[in-house]
Amino acid sequence: QCKSNVSLELFNYIIAKGNKNIQNIVQTNGSMLKSTTVSKLLPYIQQLRISYDAATESTYNKIRVNGNWTKLLENTQLIINEVRKQNLRTMISLDFVIQIDNYKEIPAFFALCKDLGVTPTLQKMWNWGTWELNEFKQKNVIDIAHNAHAELLDIMKSVGIHVTE
Questions:
Q1: pLDDT given for residue 16 in this prediction
Q2: Mean pLDDT of 118-135
Q3: What is the C-alpha to C-alpha distance for residues 100 and 59, in angstroms, rounded to an integer?
Q4: CB of 116 closer than 8 Å to CB of 72
Q5: How many CA atoms lie within 13 A of 4 on its CB side?
Q6: What pLDDT sits at residue 1?
Q7: 113 to 52, 77, 133, 139, 140: CA distances (angstroms)
Q8: Of 2, 36, 44, 64, which is least surrounded by CB within 10 A?
Q9: Is residue 41 a contact partner of residue 15, using CB atoms and an 8 Å limit?
Q10: What is the separation of C-alpha 140 from the centre of its chain, rounded to a whole number of angstroms?
């Protein structure tokens, strides 16, 4: 069930309006994908972005404290099946914020996305006040000054992404 009353109100408003010409993009951590509200909302969603940030349960548990990898995979498969069942054009993408704890899993993440038939999306890490500056710098492998940055570029090349700096 959707735990955010604000989101639930918005979703119900979109459903009630019934306007499929408006292109809605929804980003979620995947915990609410089982709700009947989301099934009703799917025809009005152009893109559904699900935050993964991992390709394995151990990494997911490290990054997404209190998350549930098995539930995430199950909910993702349920929503993929629902999109197919309703014959919708909803694009489903899995988001992966690159950081020191997960960057080596990028190839496995791309393989997971291919297996599921969804689009992989890599994103830059941002500090929204979550970490002290030194901890953020240690985690932010995208930073050209990071000691693992060159390895990250090699990994990205291995999945067909070429970065120019």
A1: 86
A2: 94
A3: 11
A4: no
A5: 12
A6: 43
A7: 10, 11, 32, 24, 23
A8: 36
A9: yes
A10: 18
Q: How far apart are the first and last CA of the chain?
A: 43
Residue 53 CB: number of other CB atoms within 10 A?
A: 23
Report residue 30 as tokens: 């995947």
Q: Tokens 């020191």, residue?
A: 100
Under 8 Å between Cβ of 65 and 71: no
SS3 category, 143? coil
In which band, very low, low, confident or very high, does the pLDDT at 165 lie, cut at 50, 70 and 90?
Answer: low
* DSSP 8-state code for residue 128: S
Cα–Cα distance for residue pair 19/15, rounded to 1 Å? 8
Token readout for 41 is 């909302």
Q: Which of 55, 53, 50, 48 is nearest to 65 (CA)?
A: 53
Task: For residue 107, give both structure tokens.
Answer: 């190839």
pTM listed for this prediction: 0.88
Q: Residue 105 gets which letter from DSSP? A: G
Alpha-carbon distances, residue 40 vs 13, 66, 72, 107, 157 (angstroms): 11, 27, 19, 34, 39
